[in-house]
Amino acid sequence: MSKNYIIYTYGCQMNVHESEKIAGILSSKGYTKCDKSEDADVIVYNTCCVRENAEQHAFGNIGMIKKLKKQKKDLIVAVCGCMTQQGNFAEKLSSMFPYVDIIIGTFNMDKFGEILDKKLNSKKRIVEILDKNRPICESVKPLRSSYPNAWVNIMYGCNNFCSYCIVPYVRGRERSRTLDNVLNEVKSLVESGYKEITLLGQNVNSYGKDLGDGTSFAKLIDEIAKIEGKFRLRFMSNHPKDITEDVVKAIANNQHACKSIHLPVQSGSTRILSLMNRKYTREQYLSEVKMIRSIIPDCALTTDIIVGFPTETEEDFLDTMSLVETVGYDGAFTFVYSPREGTKAAEMEDQIPAEVKKDRIMRLVDLQNERNRVDSLKYVGKTIEVLIEDYDQKKNAYMGRDERGRMAYVEFTKNIVGKFVQVQITSTGGMSLLGKVVKVEEEM
Ligand code: SAH
Ligand code: SF4
Ligand code: F3S
Fold first, then answer.
1. Closest ligand (CA of 309)
2. Residue 264 Cα, ligand 2 centroid: separation in angstroms?
3. What separation in Å is there between the alpha carbon of 50 and the centre of ligand 1?
4. Is 260 inside any structural domain?
5. This model's pTM is above 0.85
6. Which CATH number belongs to the domain containing residue 27 in this structure?
7. Were both Cys, which of 18, 36, 215, 218 would link to 250 (CB 3.0–4.6 Å)?
8. Last residue of some domain: 106, 128, 150?
9. Is 303 in the pocket of ligand 1 (CB under 6 A)?
10. Is there a domain that residue 190 lies in?
11. Alpha carbons 371 and 326: distance in angstroms, whole number
12. Is the beta carbon of 264 within 6 A of some atom in ligand 1?
């Protein structure tokens, strides 16, 4: 009888892709993906610790598996990902959850197969956290589950140490994959039919700097431009401190690259930005936005914003609100500041009370939602190109996005997932768009 696995993923796209790598390992060992913990022989929790709620979510779910583990003695429970890579967390997890069989970090995913074999042959729990700075492993073939999009790591780690952020502590220093390795992966994904490639890195602008051979992010974009076939190129994230004209020009000149940039601002107050160690001021950020729009006039911009950073005053917060209005983002991921043990900001005095943070995030979300709603209305009557990503059972419609990342729903009689379609927008549903298919791309 075939054995089953299920992977629960928390956190960012990086983790989503790492789960695809674990899935690749498990499927090469003959395991099949299942949809319920009850049917699984191996359960993997791929955790995140960027904010307290991500961590608590994982803790809660690992706690709930205790009962199943009691009933099903052979079930293997593994915990991996960023949470395990912090300070003494592996020990803490071990004592909190004695029924967890395997605890591994973020950077030994390639060893997951070996560790699983070892566990299957022994009764003992395995805790193995390797050096977070260990060299990149190229040997794992992911089992992708996000068609028509494919995630491609271009680099691992982060050197920036923003004062609120745990990522550099759990993911180590910046390490770039070679240009050839990235290009070969992108080429083969496009050849095998993927229609959207998303390049992943904590700060994609620093791609290649550590290789010392002249490789840069702009060069990578230029090289990807030479790949034939119709596909979209996206990337995240760009750190505003080093997005250059070279990079923006490379995006402008690349027929695959979506004219859309994720440029996390975090705060609109120069004082807070300095405490956050972001290395740019409000004015510098705004002049970058100007530079981007002078090269790509209709470039969509999205962002990440934190409210309630220690010492944030109402005035600082209003600076964030006014920046959001000035830039006019196409989308914003908004977060309540959450102290992370070991980071500089967690030690700062004047942490902001929960109710103040809550009030600020609600005002910010309202502002951005209103802008998205008004923006959506401008689409009505227009025809846009949408890449269909999925079928939404609840809405009985296909879902896709335009180049700017705006979601659109259409009804259609045939399966059009993975197709570029021309959609005429007829109405809006809050932030998303509703329309009808005018044309489906020809088979290529
Ligand atoms: N490397 C990316 C971000 C990775 S983390 C970048 O620099 O853009 C994703 C987002 O989580 C960050 O942009 C930030 O907005 C948010 N974040 C990180 N640490 C946080 C914390 N301690 N509290 C609240 N939000 C946080
Ligand atoms: Fe965290 Fe800053 Fe690195 Fe992004 S750039 S991962 S926010 S330290
Ligand atoms: Fe990503 Fe969370 Fe780790 S955001 S890098 S999975 S801490």
1. 1
2. 10
3. 7
4. no
5. yes
6. 3.40.50.12160
7. 218
8. 128
9. no
10. no
11. 11
12. yes
